Each structure stands twice: as C-alpha cells, then as structure tokens.
Amino acid sequence: MYFLAIETSCDDTSVAIFKNEKLLQVKTRTQLVHKNSGGVIPEIASREHSNNIDELIRQIMSEENLTFEDLSVIVVTQGPGLVNSLQIGIIAAKTLSMIYNIPLYTMNHLVGHIYSPFISQQLEMIPEEAIILLASGGHTMLLYKKKFRIKELSNTRDDSVGESFDKVARILELGYPGGKVIDGIYKDYLKDESSVGELPKFKIPLMNSIEFSYSGLKSKVLQEHKKQNYSKDAIAVSFMKTAIDQLVKKTKLILKEAKINNLFIVGGVSANSLLRESFNDVKDLNVFIPEMQFTTDNAAMIGTAFYVKYKNNDIEPSALDVDSIPRMGIGKTNNE
Ligand code: KG4
Ligand code: ZN
Questions:
Q1: Is the CB of residue 180 below 6 angstroms from any atom belonging to ligand 1?
Q2: Number of C-beta neighbours around residue 195 at 10 A
Q3: Other CB atoms within 10 Å distance of the CB of residue 153
Q4: Ligand 2 mean position to 267 CA, how many Å?
C-alpha cells in the first residue's frame, strides 16, 4: 500500500510517501524565517506551514507519479507541538481524507522520533525491549520500551537540552539553529584544541539523580560570558561537553540499573557529534541512532512509526473530527 505522512509540529514542514515500510521520498522544508529572532515564532511558523504544505504534497505526489486515489492511508502528527502548527498538518490531512475517502491516522511526534533509527530499515531489527534517550528542542527524557508500551523513567526539571543549546547560542551570539552551530565550534576545537584558549569548568547538576536539569548550566554560561575571562568559543565548547556529558552519564546509570543492552538515541540532539560517539566504549551495547537527515523533525519518522504499529495491529484509524493535542504526553494515548 502507498501512504502519505505529514509532520508540521514545530518549524519543519515535512511530507513523506511510503510503499509499505519502504520510504519512497521525504520532503522537508525547514523554516529559515526564524533565523533572525533566534527562536521559533509560533504565528510565523503556522503561516509558513500553510504557505508550504499544499505545494510540498503536490510536488511529492507528482514526483512519485501517484494520484490521491492511490493512497491507502494518510497519517499526520497530532502532538506534542505548537497548536497552530499542528493544526495546519491536521487540516491538510483531514481535507484529503474527506475528499478522497482515505483512512486517516494520527501519530504522536515523540513516538515518531523513537522509530527514527529504523526509517527504511528491516522492521525485524527493531528490538522489543530498549532504553530510549529522547533529546530534542522540546524534550529531554529517558524512556523504557517494551514492545509498543513506553514508560517514562526520567525527565528534565527545567529546560530541555536542545533548548539550552539554542539559548546558549543566543547568549553568545553564535547564530541559529544553536545546536548545529555549537557542534561546529566543537569540531573545529578538536582539530586544534589550543585555538579557543583555556576552557571554563562547568559542573553537571544533579549528579546522582537520573533527572536532568539545564537552566543552571545556561545561567553559568551567561555569567562567564559577562565576566569575559574566556573566549566565546571556549565557553561554547565547555558548555557542549557538560551538556552532552549529563545526557551520557545519566543514560549509562539507567542502562546499568535496567540491565538492558539496547539503546535508542533520538530527537534533534542525536545529531550531536560528541553524543553520537559517547557510547562506543560500552561493552555489548547495541546503539540505534537515526541517520543525520532523520535526526530533526521529519515526516519519514511519522510514517515509519505508523507502519510498525499498523503491521502489528497497534493503531486504529481516527475520526474526522480528530484534533491536535499540543501537550500530548507519551504513554497516555492509543499512540503509546
Ligand atoms: O527534534 P527536533 O528537530 O525538534 C523538536 O522536536 O524539538 O530538535 C531540535 C533541537 C534544537 O534545539 C537544536 O538546537 C538541536 O535539536 N540540535 C542539536 C544539534 N542539531 C540540532 N543539538 C546539539 N547538537 C547538534 N548537532
Ligand atoms: Zn521533534
């Protein structure tokens, strides 16, 4: 069967076409208009989605030589995310579903991220049991997965890790999006460690807890920046090391306690170069990380999550009056 997946939860307008589990094509338009403000402006994000969505759907359908009559399913992100952004994807999906009589399904954005390492992979390779580090602009969580049930093990007490990258980049006036820019500075630093000068020392908060915290680290960055004792790049490098170290240490703590040897690392921050290699030293651990192009928000992960559940009879079609759920949690809906 052919199906269309739509993702518009934040600032990426993304559509994907699948033939069963096989991704035929994904088109993602990242909204660059937010560059100047240093963060996503919700009203502008939804306007951009509504300007882009029709064109992206039309393009992908024609490039794949498909008509809407060929589609067996439409799946769209229901939440969590920005209400007006989610709404654009949902309206597009509902409209097509209604006009062409195509069954409509909804997907939890976080569940989409969880399946992002398996886009265009053999679905048999998805382990039944795993620990998941979900690190994005909106979330910093450790989760436990058993088949399709997801349980939250830990969360952040304040900011998310991705948000802290974005805020620190803004404080140091490094540019947007913050994660990628700071990671770039870190990679340059590795080539020549003396180039940034001495590094400030930042502490990992809540060291003996599995809970995360990022707002204190951001405040320390601000203080150091004001004191001007270190270069901006040195502060950025030190920030990144500490931010990633916090993710790694707490994930290792959980892995040890749970005695599970499968780890998924997902969400926008899974693009981070240091994070991607931080578990290489753990013996007998199978690490599943999305390809770089699927680390940040995209419709391919929404389609993959849908298909895995659909194949296993773990998802029901939605009624046409389905609505967005901006604060959708994990483990609390039929998308668990
Ligand atoms: O998953 P995502 O695309 O959107 C949400 O669902 O939140 O994640 C976006 C986040 C941003 O905060 C961005 O700064 C961060 O992912 N990010 C990174 C890197 N690339 C993107 N953080 C650290 N290192 C990176 N290389
Ligand atoms: Zn996301």
A1: yes
A2: 13
A3: 16
A4: 6
In Å, how far are 36, 92, 292 from 270, measured between CA atoms?
A: 25, 29, 8
Count Cβ atoms within 10 A of the Cβ of residue 313 and give its class: 0-12 exposed, 13-18 middle, 19 or more buried. exposed
DSSP string of 122-167, one letter each residue: -GGGS-SEEEEEEESSS-EEEEEEETTEEEEEE-BSSS-HHHHHHH
Residue type for 24, please? L
With 0-12 / 13-18 / 19 or more C-beta atoms within 10 angstroms meaning exposed / middle / buried, residue 58 is exposed
- Please give the Cα distance from 99 to 129 (Å, whole number): 40
| Of 88, 92, 127, the residue nearest 4 (C-alpha) | 92
Contacts of 47 (CB under 8 A, 6+ apart): none
Residue 119 in contact with residue 294, Cβ under 8 Å?
A: yes
Other CB atoms within 10 Å distance of the CB of residue 180: 15
For ligand 2, the distance from its centroid to the CA atom of residue 240, given in whole angstroms, is 20
In 3D space, the residue among 265, 159, 141 whose CA is nearest the CA of residue 210 turns out to be 141
Q: Is 112 in the pocket of ligand 1 (CB under 6 A)?
A: no
Is residue 83 a contact partner of residue 325, using CB atoms and an 8 Å limit? no
Spatial contact of 106 and 318, defined as CB atoms under 8 Å apart: yes
Q: CA-to-CA distance for 175 and 181, rounded, in angstroms?
A: 7
Q: Quick check: CB of 136 below 6 Å from ligand 1?
A: yes
The per-residue pLDDT for range 182-235, each reduced to its tens digit, is 999 999 999 999 999 999 999 998 888 999 999 999 999 999 999 999 999 999
pTM, rounded to two decimals: 0.95
* Separation of alpha carbons 218 and 167, rounded Å: 7
The residue-averaged pLDDT of 231-248 equals 98
10 lines ligand 1 (CB under 6 A): yes
Burial class (CB in 10 A: 0-12, 13-18, 19+), 66: middle
